Inverse folding.
């Protein structure tokens, strides 16, 4: 598998690799998880969402997805995120076409987010998702002030170092405890978010009790700041949040 893949070192896709057979860009996790890749979403991923998200070992720790999660939810969501990813890739490819050899362009997201295990026969299976987006400011307890800060943050121009970003992620229970999400977060943060998005400040959130997610953030350099109670209710249950912070440090 490794020998069949090329690295686009002079392309706007850098530092992503590209599968020469399919043209799909991807990141490969470092050993011992070299059989794990992160790619753009594919429309064919949709059937795999519900079995993972409806597992309480995953769904309990997520705020966004409706639970129970249905195939209809999956069909709507995959269209949204596939378009988001393709929009970023189209901008980068257009830059290569119209202005080849120019400095790497900043973009407002990461085009790869779906985590896959590559099997011995070369096929792969969907096992999770990691997304980076502008932050929700959960640490601001007043809901109106929080809404204002979200609006301000969303309005900031790409490349502004004061933009606050956050990660959202999950992985199938079959792949828990293998260090996959920690490696994926570090890889996307330091290989894409910092150089290709200009990310300099991030917040991390995990529901109280989700020890695994806190550890994932900490392994990526996030610092635990405390526990929040901003009145959040998820599926009828009051939930508190672990709050972590990451600030870029020049190497």
């Amino acid at each position: 598998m490794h020998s069949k893949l090329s690295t686009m070192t002079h392309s706007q896709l850098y530092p992503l690799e590209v599968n020469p057979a399919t043209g799909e860009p991807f990141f490969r996790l470092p050993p011992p998880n070299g059989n794990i890749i992160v790619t753009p979403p594919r429309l064919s991923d949709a059937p795999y969402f519900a079995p993972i998200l409806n597992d309480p070992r995953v769904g309990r720790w997520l705020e966004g997805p409706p639970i129970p999660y249905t195939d209809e939810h999956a069909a709507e969501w995959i269209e949204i995120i596939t378009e988001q990813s393709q929009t970023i890739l189209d901008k980068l490819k257009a830059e290569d076409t119209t202005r080849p050899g120019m400095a790497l362009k900043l973009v407002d997201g990461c085009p790869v987010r779906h985590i896959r295990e590559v099997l011995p026969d070369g096929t792969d299976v969907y096992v999770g998702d990691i997304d980076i987006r502008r932050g929700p400011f959960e640490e601001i307890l007043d809901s109106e002030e929080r809404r204002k800060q979200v609006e301000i943050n969303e309005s900031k121009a790409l490349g502004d170092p004061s933009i606050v970003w956050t990660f959202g992620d999950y992985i199938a229970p079959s792949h828990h405890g293998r260090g996959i999400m920690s490696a994926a977060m570090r890889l996307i943060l330091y290989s894409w978010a910092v150089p290709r998005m200009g990310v300099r400040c991030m917040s991390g959130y995990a529901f109280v009790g989700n020890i695994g997610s806190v550890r994932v953030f900490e392994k990526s350099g996030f610092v635990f700041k405390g526990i929040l109670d901003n009145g959040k209710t998820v599926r009828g249950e009051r939930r508190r949040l672990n709050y972590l912070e990451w600030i870029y440090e020049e190497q």
The first helix runs from residue 49 to 53. The two ends are 33 Å apart (CA to CA). The chain has six helices and twelve strands.
